[in-house]
Amino acid sequence: MAKTILVVDDSASIRQVVGIALKGAGYDVIQACDGKDALGKMSGQKINLIISDVNMPNMDGISFLKEVKQHPKYKFTPVIMLTTEAGQGKMAEGRAAGAKAWVVKPFQPPQMLDAVAKLVLP
């Protein structure tokens, strides 16, 4: 059975690029445009990994990550932050909130798929 990955980014083109790369690697993909949208789509089904942007309207990636970690069903779901933020402060904030990896845009799909393969839950 394919593993499900939730992609959260306010950029439709980024969601599309990430979605195509993941589907090409055999994953099922759920897309959300911000943290609030993503939380609404996390309706109890198994999500093996989350890829989230940091800077988004309505609910940013760090706030979204903190919410996810409060949810008993998704507490251990690994999260990769995919963002233009390369500053140590933001990275530390992301790690403190529970991010497992930090991929800086622009990214190479193979680099992202490598991180996904290492972190995705069985």
UniProtKB/TrEMBL annotation:
InterPro entries: Bact_response_regulator (IPR050595), CheY-like_superfamily (IPR011006), Sig_transdc_resp-reg_receiver (IPR001789). Residues 4-120 form the Response regulatory domain. Keywords: Phosphoprotein. Pfam families: Response_reg. PROSITE patterns: RESPONSE_REGULATORY (PS50110). The modification 4-aspartylphosphate is found at D53. PANTHER family: CHEMOTAXIS TWO-COMPONENT RESPONSE REGULATOR, STRESS RESPONSE REGULATOR PROTEIN 1. This is Response regulator. It comes from Motilimonas cestriensis.
